[in-house]
Amino acid sequence: MAMRPIPRIFHHSAKPVSVQEFVDALRAACPPRYPKARHTGHRRIGVATSGGVDSMALAFLFSALRKHDPDFIIGDNPCGGIDAFVIDHKLRDSSTQESHAVLRELEKLRYIKPQRLALDWAELLGSPDIDPRTLPNLETAARRGRYRTLGGMCVKEGIDNLFLAHHADDQHETVLMRLLGGHPGRGLVGIRSSGDIPECNGIYRVHQSGFIDLMRRKKPPLTYKLRKKEVHDLRRSLLSEISSHLKFGLEHTLQQLDVRPHSGPPLLPEDYFSEVGVADDLATEHQISPRVKPDLPQLDVEDGGVRICRPLLDFEKDRLIATCEQNGVKWFEDHTNTDPTLTTRNAVRYMVRNFELPQALQRPAILQMADRLKEAIRADEEEADGLFRKTEIIDFRTNSGTLIVQLPEVEASAGDGLEKRRTAAALLVRRLIEVVTPEEQFPMLPSLRGIVSRLFPRLATEAFPAADPPKPFNIGGVLFSPLLTNPPPSQDDGDDAAAAAAASSAAPTPAPPCWFISRAPYKSTEPLPSLEFVQRKGMPQRGTLIRCKPDWSFVTKKWHLWDGRFWIRPRLRLAGTFAIEPFRPSHAKTFRNALEPKERERLEALLRTYAPGKVRYTLPAIYYKGSIDWATMTARIGDGETLLALPSLGVQLPRLGEIVEYQVRYKKVGEDVLRKCDMSFVV
User: Fold this and answer.
1) Which terminus of the chain has fewer Cβ atoms in its 10 Å neighbourhood, N or C?
2) For the segment 526-585, what is each residue's pLDDT rounded down to a tens digit?
């Protein structure tokens, strides 16, 4: 990496990016995430800075904007400062020296606070004995380490928007690479202008989480509360619309009224499964009434995390060079970015710069194609939104991660119209899968072609026929089960039954009105999801007795993502190893018998109502690796395994709070789903 001197003659063919152009691009790339909230303070922003011309231009533009408007709003809050993060990959002997050179140039920019972040390869690779330069996937490992380091620093600095300097030339190269890789149409739209930070799944506050804790601070940066003036204006507006003879005494009347919307109780899983014969061994054995529907508060739903934004995607690199040259901003050239033998991107970059490509592969044509694809995708999303509005979410239970939905009837149409409707239906299905799936990567649309025919028989094709009768199926770690509310006619109905049977054999059976969507049962060939936590304080030798000490401070206070669905925070007060693993049938009887009689009945009702059939064995459970004598509050480490609690149901052994406490939340869910369920992630 070498310093590039400022040339005496500027680029006359390329126009520098103006502050106003940058503001417009910034607003488009970084819209508010919580438009219904109002800000109560400033928040800092982060800029990932490599020292190249693109990131140095981005840092300069932020500095210029800060000078022009010190309180400009980015996302949801006014900007409270700009942190420029310089990553030291520690892969070259000169990398530390090079990163300090970038820091010195950034320090010349007013309003910019530069910080050097060195990758901790020992932590990233889990061992100090591995040389990262020997890794066969070094580029992938470096990317993962870079984003995780940036995400962690964003959390530390209270930053929720991290800006990257990808530009139009990068967009061109990306689409060309995807063309070479054989990606389908949707993969050719290029780099997105904003999205969740990648490579950080499972890191609390960094990826799709942390908003609840943020809003529960004494001074949160956002609020959903109305200002006193807004309350006063609303009240005055309401009074002005009431006829004069009702104005007098209205205050007293409104205070006395308790008007609430009324609707019948939502249908629960047991209402359907009782009709299709899903047995509940516990309920059958103890003869619990099927009408008993215990109250179970929903879990809080997470949101938040660090968002990455790319405001320079519409600007060519020449314009960024001109921006730096005109304003005396120096940058650095990394020779590894020009070696076509190192990476595919370098090879594509070399080809673009050194060869005259066919017109269809040149930057203007490629970017226009990407824009057309974006418009087509936007149209598909709008049609999928229409289907989602017609979809009824009968029940969404965060405690078990299950959905009951009634899908809309979708009529087939000829020609391209059928494919468009199938695409919209696939987008709807993927949206429902996202609510329940434990997987980080969601199914691609081509993999949902057969699923669309199963769920929407009228959209079936010859290549992808409908299932008759509908059957359960797995996709993306999710189990779809049909809920047949209309049983077939009895054989005793004579001619009517025969006629009905003949009719059903002549035409595909319509899709059932409802589907039960749950986490798919665990595969016997794969390890079960597991988190382990160790309280080492007071840890004796294996097999010896230890006593719970209530004066110990809690440990393990961090949130952890279990099975990609539940955020769990245990707090341990007993020496030994605790684990969060699925509820297993082998522990069910012992756990049930250890509960108080009323709690035992409550457990059986909860399982029957909210986790029928095998769904219960996908619930998180807290285990202790040893045995516990509850009478003396002593434990023996390594002596078997003890099931302590089903945290998402709020069921636990007596006196559990003396040795472990826990909190549990559900993963981030789309706001459109929460609105349909009349839920909110802000509690």
Assistant:
1) C
2) 999 999 998 876 666 555 567 776 666 556 679 999 999 999 999 988 888 999 999 999
DSSP state of 71: T
Query: Radius of gyration (Cα) for the chain, nearest Å?
Result: 30
Tell me the two tokens of residue 247: 């104005």
Global confidence as pTM: 0.86
Asked whether the beta carbons of 32 and 76 are under 8 A apart, the reply is yes
Q: What is the pLDDT of residues 401-420, one digit of tens each?
A: 999 999 999 888 776 789 99
Pairing of the two strands 38-39 and 222-223: antiparallel
DSSP 654: T
Helix (H, G, I), strand (E, B) or coil at 582: strand
Cα 204 to Cα 189: distance, rounded to the nearest angstrom: 30
Q: Which of 664, 589, 652 is nearest to 624 (CA)?
A: 652
Instruction: Tell me if residue 652 falls in helix, strand or coil.
Output: strand
Chosen CATH of 13-202+307-355 out of 3.40.630.10, 3.40.50.620, 3.40.309.10, 3.50.50.60: 3.40.50.620
Question: DSSP string of 208-257?
Answer: S--HHHHHTSSS-SEE-PPPHHHHHHHHHHHHHHS-HHHHTTHHHHHHH-
Residue range(s) occupied by CATH 3.40.50.620 in the chain: 13-202+307-355
Burial class of residue 433 (count of CB atoms within 10 Å of its CB; 0-12, 13-18, 19+): buried
Q: Sign of dihedral through CA atoms 419, 479, 608, 674? A: negative
**DSSP state, residue 186:** G
Q: Is 459 helix (H, G, I), strand (E, B) or coil?
A: helix
- Answer whether 607's CB lies under 8 Å from 520's CB: no
- Tokens coding 566: 């539940």
Task: Write the pLDDT tens digit of every residue in 479-511.
Answer: 999 986 554 444 444 444 444 444 444 445 554
The pLDDT tens digits of the residues spanning 425-458 come to: 999 999 999 999 999 999 999 999 999 999 999 9
Residues contacting residue 321 through CB under 8 Å, at least 6 positions apart: 11, 14, 53, 57
| Joined tokens for residue 138 | 């070094």
453, 465 contact by CB (below 8 A): yes
Integer angstrom CA distances of residue 225 from 228, 496, 674? 9, 61, 19
Asked if the bond preceding 469 is cis, omega within 30° of 0, the reply is yes
Residue-wise pLDDT for 145-162, tens only, equals 999 999 999 999 999 999
CA 224, CA 682: separation in Å to the nearest integer?
A: 9
